[in-house]
Design a protein that fits this description.
Blueprint: H1 8-29, H2 38-55, H3 61-64, H4 79-84, E1 98-105, E2 110-116, E3 122-127
Antiparallel strand pairs: 1-2, 2-3
Helix pairs in contact: 1-2
The structure holds zinc ion (ZN).
The site of zinc ion has 8 residues, from loops.
């Protein structure tokens, strides 16, 4: 595995998952010829993976949607580790000396520029709406 890529069976599994999701979107939208949109499919695939591999624990992520494990490229940021810290440390050097700028909100996301005061590099954090809380009247 790894460098050799995916087996035919694994590629077929990927196609199967994406086709099922696309078919579901077509049916739900009532548009049999809905354009193939891999971003939309990916959103649903991620949610389905969380339920099937996480909540239900019926398959591993590799069984659900086989993927090639990319080797960490030298000097490339470890985005996963960064997300785990909820963006508390520098994406590149791990320093806690980071400074967030103003937040820009568009239709789908809020974006905040962040700069590391130690290594001087900068990046953008992307936030999405995950919840809403009602204000309690009379408190
Ligand atoms: Zn840094």
């Amino acid at each position: 595995m790894g460098k050799e890529g995916l087996t035919q069976k694994q590629v077929d599994r990927q196609d199967f998952v994406d086709n099922v999701i696309h078919g579901m979107l077509c049916r739900l939208a009532g548009e049999p010829d809905l354009a193939w949109n891999i971003e939309h499919i990916g959103t649903i695939r991620d949610a389905a993976r969380d339920i099937i591999c996480g909540d239900l624990a019926l398959k591993t992520e590799m069984e659900f949607y086989p993927y090639i494990e990319l080797e960490q490229v030298e000097g490339a940021p470890d985005k996963k580790a960064y997300m785990k810290t909820s963006g508390m440390t520098c994406l590149y050097c791990g320093s806690y000396q980071i400074e967030g700028g103003g937040v820009e909100v568009d239709d789908n996301a809020a974006i905040q520029g962040v700069k590391c005061l130690d290594c001087g590099r900068s990046w953008s954090d992307v936030y999405r709406l995950v919840d809403v809380r009602e204000e309690k009247i009379g408190e």
